[in-house]
């Protein structure tokens, strides 16, 4: 048996498409608890896939190169353009995709560069300041650094999320919250919810 025969699969186009099909069938209203839960489950499911890649690396089932490749595969699947007739649904899915961006980059940074020194809340505040100064690259960088700390086990204070003004940083930190949830409870979210 070659290595290719025993390749572990972390996420598939089919899995993502199943979520999208379900979202397309649903009457989504972000103010509705069931709709919000469905979107959050979609987001958490992708974060769980990333955490499973990191766990496989940690357990030495895969090496660093394969881990980076797998993280990028999940990212490419999840961040691909979504074609729905309903523009509101496209916007809601875009919000999920935006939230997940730092999850992918934090996981990749964790694999390649390790954990950065610092505190999650300091990085989040620095990101908010950078966003206020229209320096979105720096803002994303700070959120990614916070993500490496979360992967390493530091907790994200949910009160911190509440303090943020709505914008990219608040969406990105929302993604880190999914990352933290996935680390704490890496059980697969049932697509049929």
From TrEMBL:
Which superkingdom heads the taxonomic lineage of this protein's source?
A: Archaea
Query: Tell me, what's a Pfam family for it?
Result: DUF2150
Q: What is this protein called?
A: DUF2150 family protein
Name the source organism: Halorubrum lacusprofundi (strain ATCC 49239 / DSM 5036 / JCM 8891 / ACAM 34)
